[in-house]
Amino acid sequence: MSKTKQPIVEITPQLIIDRVHSIRGMKAMLDKCLAAMYGVETYRLNEAVK
Fold it and tell me: pTM score > 0.70 for this model?
């Protein structure tokens, strides 16, 4: 497993809009996209949520 840090991305309103998906009529953002915006690994984001 690679422990490389993801580069921090400048968060713009358009970036957020592009990463919000409509799933069964509800707006949702995938954990992968949210983790990338915060510059952390997906599993670390999920750990924090738990």
Answer: no
